[in-house]
UniProtKB/TrEMBL annotation:
Protein name, per record: Zinc-binding dehydrogenase
InterPro entries named among the record's database cross-references: ADH-like_C, ADH-like_N, ER, GroES-like_sf, NAD(P)-bd_dom_sf, Quinone_OxRdtase_PIG3
Keywords per UniProt: NADP, Oxidoreductase
Residue ranges of every copy of the Enoyl reductase (ER) domain listed in the record: 10-323
Record-annotated membrane-spanning stretches: none
Keyword NADP: yes
Superkingdom classification of source: Bacteria
Organism annotation: Allopontixanthobacter sediminis
A Pfam family matched in the record: ADH_zinc_N
Gene Ontology MF term list: NADPH binding; oxidoreductase activity, acting on NAD(P)H
Amino acid sequence: MTAAGFDAPGGPEVLRIEELPVPVPGAGEVLIRVAYAGVNRPDVIQRQGFYPAPPGASPILGLEIAGEVVAQGEGLEQRALGQRVCALVTGGGYAEYCVAKYAHCLPVPDEMSLAEAAALPETLFTVWHNVFERGWACEGETLLVHGGTSGIGTMAIKLANLFEMTIIVTCGSEGKCDAARVIGADHAINYKAEDFVERVKEITGGAGVNLVLDMVSGDYVARNLACLAEDGRHVTIAVLGGMKAEINMAQVMSRRLTMTGSTLRARPDTFKAAVREEIAQIVWPFVESRRLRPEMDLTFPLAEAAAAHERMQSGEHIGKIVLEM
């Protein structure tokens, strides 16, 4: 099979096309002929050498795919052959074939394109678990999301809208703020032109937001806490702005704030299967009724994986970038 790989960490230019053996599905796994694979920030960080694949995972980049099941391993009670599925994987997506745990797959509705399906799993699993399971988001609450036009940000906007939340996002330009509003954000703040803490106070009448989804960390954490209402929750899913933060713990105690965070890739298969089951029951009906679709940016052929990474690193994308096999 054809795959995109690299010999040593570096810039996008290290990505190259190679020929590799087709993987064989093990117990509880399926082999998917990949039609499209999503491109995500962790792919870029892994290519740069800062995010190695967990033990047992494919060294090939790619954490989400969509395509057709062409083989299945032992132990599956259901016949999966021929099904159109999208899947969350721990690696291997940038290839013509990829193995996935069947318990981490979701059925692709007939009217949904495989390109859109490939853009769902990574952001959907991440946002659902962190905003709704860890962050306890509820209808009527207010959510602050940084990076409002990223893959994660656009998915957070769309999911929060389905549950009638008020959504405030930050973006790095007026153009991106406009795009975020079109996607569904109630308020978009250009963090390069305005102090987002003061704007959040203005928007909420001084009450603050119930929940912050943070992908920056670093010195943003203290500012995020200043945006929170009493009993507010702060969920960190990335540390793009630095791993260390200095905060006032007296503020955390007096205002009864909750701070948490998580990563997804290295979590046990059973955990991911449980998240998949909850998504299948609560969120997937919105996918089937066409009320939830990913925000799509550009599609690149696999041979142009380097260009896809360049676009992601540039920050110009709005929504999800995918590779076509």
